[in-house]
Amino acid sequence: MPEPLAPRLQMGLTLLVLVLLGALPARAESLEAAVDRIVTRQLAQHRIPGATVAVVRDGRVALLQGYGEAEVGGGIPVDAERTRFRVASVGKLFVWTAVMRLVEQGRLDLDADVNTWLEDGLRRPPGEYGPLTLRHLMAHTGGHEVLERLWPAGPVPDSVEAYLQTREPQRVRPPGELSAYSDYGTTLAQHLVERVTGQRFEDHLRETVWEPLGMRHTLFRRTVPPPLVQDVARGHDVVRGQPRAEPVERVVVASSGSMLTTAADVSRFMLAHLRGGEVDGQRVLGEDTVRRMHRQHFTHHDRLAGWAHGFMEFHVHGQRLIGHTGDAYQFISLLALVPERGWGLFVSYNGLGEKNAAQHARMELLEALLGRDFPAPRPILVLLPTENAERFAGSYQTTWRAYGTSEASLAWRQEVHVSAYGGASLILRRPDGSARSWVEIEPLLFRPTDDPQSSERIAFRADNGGRITHLFLGARPQEAYERAPWYDAAPLTLALLAGCAGLFGLTVLGVLVQRTPAQGVLAGLAGCHLLVLAGVTLLLRPLAPFDAHAAPGLLAAVRWGALLTGGLTPGLLFWSARARGSTRTAWLGFAMAVALGAALLTAWLYHWRLLAGR
Hints:
Layout: H1 5-23, H2 31-46, E1 50-57, E2 60-68, E3 85-86, H3 92-104, H4 134-138, H5 160-166, H6 183-197, H7 201-213, E4 219-220, E5 236-239, E6 242-245, E7 259-261, H8 263-274, E8 278-279, E9 282-283, H9 287-294, E10 312-316, E11 319-328, E12 331-338, E13 343-349, H10 357-373, E14 394-398, E15 416-421, E16 425-429, E17 435-442, E18 445-448, E19 458-462, E20 468-473, E21 481-483, H11 490-513, H12 517-539, H13 551-578, H14 584-607
Antiparallel strand pairs: 1-2, 1-13, 3-7, 4-7, 5-6, 8-9, 10-11, 11-12, 12-13, 14-15, 14-21, 15-16, 16-17, 17-18, 18-19, 19-20, 20-21
Helix pairs in contact: 2-10, 3-6, 5-6, 11-12, 11-14, 12-13, 12-14, 13-14
């Protein structure tokens, strides 16, 4: 008997509805759910105790959320409204906002010599490189070397003036040519604000920016005031796989890097820059000034990210962003804006994570949220045959380093190595050992070979003769890379140090075979030089932490040990020659090994300012 029509029709309609529902896209994950998922996983995966996040969309605050703990094991959750984080160099954006307010009022001039406003104790003649201006300082192109990037120079100065007087770097190139990220330059600008206004920098910001914007939990402090301890997150590193909190009593440098703030307060600052300088009827900058601040005014290459007026540029997911990172005191932070879209993100982690994973985590969150809101168009790229790829090959050393102090010796440990691959692409190897292949898309401009859709770029600069002189990494406008001469590059340095160690080691071992007084003296000398080499190795170990307080003492020990051993070497060689007896052939070989090793080591230490210099 045939099945009735009505039940068959009902079943068919049900199946049709199910098919149509299945064809519809799944409900999009909410912003809050997406951030919760990403940040919660990051904290657990990378051993980071906590984070604080603010997201601005369409010119309004779309998300404020704290995650994890303010201190590992402390039981106090991160509150985006109350928990203060040290945001390090994100605070520089407040320096430049204050500067641009004074430029707007005609009290500062971006193109005037900074000596115009400095007192006698800090005023410096322009010298061979010409005047230094605020415009240079905003793009970190003042031409200064960079001190204390890895080694502290001594006790933390207790004021901005003391910092500027005791930590003044040398100028090593004309201003406006190359970027070299400079804490000194921003602190100098901060001091100019104090000079012009007659106010403490913090008081000026509170009166002109923080209070008008409703930023009630923001302050600059070198140490955490006791009444605020419960509301301040602790920074953490990772020791034996577990987060370890930094002491709350820690003293930081008296500069914009000492800012403590909350995600809620930073969201108000982002709104000010996304709304033309005004929030809730309170104006802190004029609209023209805001637009001026956000425009690019320096770049190493017109297809790479550069600097706006104090803001760092980023190119992510087809969008141009401006903002700043902050990495110090075991906190990792990021503020990023898309001004044209009214979009912004602030995130700060109170821990480095395993292998500094928090630096990757902040960019992962940024890319994920940009991908949700602004799907990137797929670029159409035309590959160029790379002619004479060998001309790009070589070692490149960062401008973000010291040149005239003992810390200059770290240059070869920070270098990037470029090699030709197959005649059509380049292999770029970073200081951490990671390597990637790059292919040319425009003259001197390259993109990753393995990801045609990537927005990452590197570029080179050539002199008038066509010789490659500089390398620029698109995601790092804060530094350039200068081509290193062969005698400064890492391969020769490593070979020289290994050779010296071999010469001294063979001499020590030789004494075990022929034990004579003359050779015993040589072995003692070789052993002393080996101790100096061991100290050098400890100083120049990779990834030396910023707060390596043992470095000054170790440097002094290496310096005095090298001077003493080097000074004694000629005399002891002479004494050993007189006492060599009948073992002339063996003695001569050992003596030549010690003399050659001592000469090479002394020359190397002198070249890298380890025997002298600041």
